[in-house]
Amino acid sequence: MSQPIKPQQFAVYKNLGASAKFGALQFNLQPTHYACKNQGCKGKNFTDSTPVCTCETPEMEQREGCVFLDAASPIPGGNTCNWKEKIILALNMTDLGKLLFFLRVGKTSGKNPSDTLSLVHDRYAGTDRAGEVMKTVRVWSPNGTTQGAMVTIQEKNGDTSREHKIPLSGDDIAILGTLVQAAIVKIVGW
Asked: Where on the phi/psi map is residue 100: left (φ > 0), alpha (ψ -120 to 50), or beta?
């Protein structure tokens, strides 16, 4: 039986090696899918609602997809990144719309456009623990996205924090914009 083609990763690796300053970004598409609602079950079906898990009473529900963004910094003196210290964000439809607009126009939308896009994920937003665990993506492009941009990914967990920086060229931005546009269609299953 043939297997469906799985989406490939879009990766940007920058300035690795002995004088490494910047790390890597990886974008992975998670299309809309059916997932088992049972606690602890990770069963997913990307074609239909047929249960694919071993739960006693599987109950499948349709879920919106996302684009997973992984970022890591280089290992000093090496030609690779420290993926054990990576930061992972799931970019939803709203995040992708903002990112696509910024990649295409080079500014944020609204009354006061800015050359810096910030996407903030606060695990405890709206609770008394707001701000305790946060992940932030900042894309800065002072000369317009055709000239490139700097991406900074930060994670704060209580008193500890970490950060990864990765520059994007104008070519990287053109490819990413095209992929984000296509991903938006896939994550809603249109």
From this structure: alpha
How many CB atoms neighbour CB 82 within 10 A?
Answer: 15
Beta-sheet strand order (sheet of 116-122)? 116-122, 133-140, 149-157, 160-168
> Vertex 146, ends 119 and 101: CA angle to 5°?
35
Domains of the chain by range and CATH?
A: 19-187 (2.30.31.10)
Rounded to two decimals, what is the model's pTM? Answer: 0.85
Count CA atoms closer than 13 A to 173's CA, side-chain side. Answer: 24
Q: Which of 39, 80, 32 has its CA nearest to residue 57? A: 39
- Tally: H helices and E strands in the chain: 2, 11
- Compute the 3-state secondary structure of the chain and give helix, strand, coil in percent, each to the nearest 5: 20, 35, 45
CA distance 10 to 180: 11
Helices (H), the chain: 93-105, 170-187
Question: pLDDT by residue for the chain (190 residues), tens digit each?
Answer: 566 667 788 999 876 555 668 889 999 998 887 888 887 887 777 777 787 878 888 888 888 889 999 999 988 777 788 999 999 999 999 999 999 999 999 998 888 888 999 999 999 999 999 999 999 999 999 998 999 999 999 999 989 999 999 999 999 999 999 999 999 998 887 8
